[in-house]
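Why do we care about 3D structure at all? Because function follows from shape, and shape follows, mostly, from sequence. That is the central idea of this module. The next example makes it concrete: a single protein chain, its amino acid sequence, and then its structure expressed as tokens.
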Amino acid sequence: MTIIKTEFALALNQVAGERGISPDEVIASIETALVAAYKKEYPGTDEDDDVTAKLNRETGESKLYKDAKDITPPGFGRIAAQTAKQVILQKIREAEKRTVISHYKGQIGTLIRGRIIRYDGFNAHMDIGKAEALLPREEQIQGENYSVNTSLAVYLKEISDDKFGNQRIIVSRTDPRLIEELFKREVPEIGNGAIEIKKTVREPGERAKIAVTSSHGTVDPVGACVGQKGVRVQTVTDEFEGREKIDIIQWNNDDKLFIIASLSPAKVTDVVIDRDLKRAKITVDETQAPLAIGKGGVNVNLAARLTGYLLDIIQIKSASSEIKPETTEQKPQT
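And the structure:
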């Protein structure tokens, strides 16, 4: 029996030529599928595993053999043609998927925008243009809206395999690098190298701190990131519906000055640091303590992570009054 030569040749050429798939791979896949189709269509006819199929790549003719004997049953041509078509279409889909995955592999570590197309209460699935991306629960901001058709900026984090071996595009709303990519988009000075982002830390949905510096004496890195009347930083916070406050910190090689800046918006009275133990005692007026510590300790926690120091917040009533007995200690976290 013969599969229609013109259709077979065209399909094979399409897969091999246009999709970049080896013709030998297609032929081998069709032959394997033909054996499987034979055993399914003719159950009990031959239970042995030594049945083989041979497909002539020039004519499209297919035959089944056992011990070199032709055992091709009458009427198998229709099944062979259908099987070949299914295999070729599957190869086309696989090739297209590989092309799409390859496209997004080149975008790992960048900012993309996606639209929620499905949310199962745990994972959110997003349309990112040429493919579907997964926003896992652990990459979501707690309390954020993930209803269908919601448009979000996300960080393309990785492409990984699921338990079935299928590749998945993983995106994130919690990764600190999302903040960095948003600022790169809004601040041209970062793109041209005039400003460098040294480090970013976040409590997603609450607060973030981003340390910046400039190699150009005429460029104010903090001012450039804030923008005129705060327009640049506001554009970034708008991506989180204004829920996540962002502190832009001047990077400083002087640990003491960097710690003082990291505790923004609190005003620090004094800092005593132990560089060997990576520990610092921070003295603040009692009116500044709530700002230094932050709600739930978020501000001092982020400052510790940003500077790499264990921070002890010590409150005083005034510049000359006695120190309160209680202190707040925060260790840096990775």
